[in-house]
Specification:
The complex is a heterodimer. By secondary structure, chain A is an alpha/beta fold. Chain A has a 6-stranded mixed β-sheet, with helices on both faces. Chain A is globular, with a radius of gyration of 17 Å. Chain A starts with a helix and ends with a strand. Chain B contains 13 helices and 13 strands. Chain B is about 55% helix and about 20% strand. The longest helix of chain B has about 45 residues. In chain B, β7 and β8 form a beta hairpin. Chain B is elongated, with a radius of gyration of 33 Å. Chain B is of the alpha+beta class. In chain B, α9 packs across α11 and α9 runs parallel beside α12. The chains are: A alpha/beta, B alpha+beta. The interface between A and B is medium-sized, with 26 and 24 residues.
Amino acid sequence: MNQNNTTIKFENVTKVYHLGGIDIPVLRGVSCEIKKGEHVAIMGPSGSGKTTMLNIIGCLDRVTSGKYFLEGKDISTLDDDALSEIRSRKIGFIFQSYNLIPQLTVLENIEMPLFYQQVDEAKTREKAIELAQMVGLGDRIRHRPSELSGGQQQRVAIARALMNDPVLILADEPTGNLDSVSGREIMKLLCQLNQQGTTLIVVTHDPNVAKYSSRTLKMLDGKISNED
Amino acid sequence: MKINFIHLIRIVRHGWKNIWLHKLRSLLTVLGIVFGVASVIAMLAIGEGASYEARKMIESLGSNNIIIKSIKLPADAKSQQPSFLGVYGLTDRDLRKLETIPSVVRIIPAWEMEEDVWYYDKNISARIIGTLPEYKDVMNLSIKTGRYFDENDLEKGIPVAVIGSTVRTSLFPAQDPIGKTIKIRSSYFTIIGIAGEKVFAGASESFVAEDMNIAVYIPMTTTKMFFGEYEVKRTTGGIRSWERNWVQYHRFVIQVSETDKILTTASLVSDLLSQTHKKQDYQIIVPLELLRQAERTKRIFNIVLGSIAAISLIVGGIGIMNIMLAIVTERTREIGIRRAVGAKKRDIINQFLTESVILSASGGFIGILLGIIIPKAVTKFAGMMTLITPWSILLSFSISVAVGIGFGLYPARKAANLDPIQALRYE
């Protein structure tokens, strides 16, 4: 029963990077739970480990010790291919710098996650157009990212993140490169998705962004220092 | 590999798009492969053409034959005198002696001279060959129209002639030559047949074979009757510079019973002839040996060519690898993005490997087109025969694809092994 509405569970997770022969501990024993459909903001100063935590949640990185359960499944021991598979099926990423592929069109960028699921081309296209319309870019699908404004690019990234119907959307400073108006629009869009049931985790150091969330995890020196 | 065909097509399409995006760079990248493949095909075509001609020519001498030619030795001072009569070459005595060799099936002698052949006002300098009816068989002559002369013609010394194809086209461009009369010196001959065309390579005249297409064949008896056994040649110099030589036969064609016995027979022939000929006024030609020699030469040629091709394809491959490594660096961030949205390492490998194979394969394709055009141009402008072999196209194309895989694998692996987090941060 517990597993059904807990999306993420960290049990004493640590992460240590080896840089030039020196061990740098980034996470020093993080334990937390995030429930299904929650909107959580992770805040903290630079170097507090919030991005690393997001990467681990997003299966881009692995824990050094401790356990990470995603939808009740222990994924701290999975191999690279299995992690890729989880990213492909369950997770949508949104980055500060949008991270669109410059030589592809808006539509092709949105389609990309389903390419790796080897979904039928026509179905993929249909869904991508639908999502482009949803984020308000139905008339820009043939454009390249460089022809769009920052806010528009971030909306393309959101559409891409939704392509695989993720259970989890992870946003790393989603408004960091945007002016306040576009930032608000993006946050509204994300909240809208959250209200439709997708778990949303936003890493930010902007309190204005954090205030949209239902809960904020404050991090300091690789630990959760405060929770409210 | 768990890739279905439709997905593979999509990967290839995406790869092609990326390559097309940088047309000039891609073209420059594959240039090495283009020239490698083109030169392999073109050089093989030229080599194959030359050796085909050589083989045909040697075969036209008959691979089961040994041919002995009389050779006029360099003239000494005496021969410059007007009354001097030189004697050289093969004789009846030689013929009878050589016939005693058990492996010899038959010996067909021939008497030859260079002479103008006339039909009204047209003329051509031809090789007049007086011989026996069997000459046709041992030399594998085909008769296009009419017939060759037979025993009856020979016995009665009838003035009939069989002409080669070049003689036909220059004397009778529009008429049927059969039954017409041609003039050689002051004698007239009736044409009874036309020989089929024989391959002759103008470029490789150093070979022993002669152009059989400018020959006029007449019965031996007729020849002796009309022209005797003297050859008369005008030498360079004054009015009275005539050279007269007595030659009984210019050529023996010896047919040997089995191919295996050709070499031993040839050495026997050499021994027997050297007993009676003080000077070596003859030349023994063994077509089979020449054929083998030609094949050996061709094999060496192919090995040399193969190494050159291998080097140029490796160089081409390094060019591709170099650019692929640059592309991987250039697109590090893209790799990170693709990994983040769910691409496995294998997907990244497939993507970059596909691009390098597309590069090398299209280089191979352009190379094939060039490799087909170049030999055609060589044939057109240099008049050399070329022969494009399908296997050379197939081979060089598969090698270029293999180069794409071989030299694309390292960059592709490098791309796949990038840490997604580092790649996403890459500026």
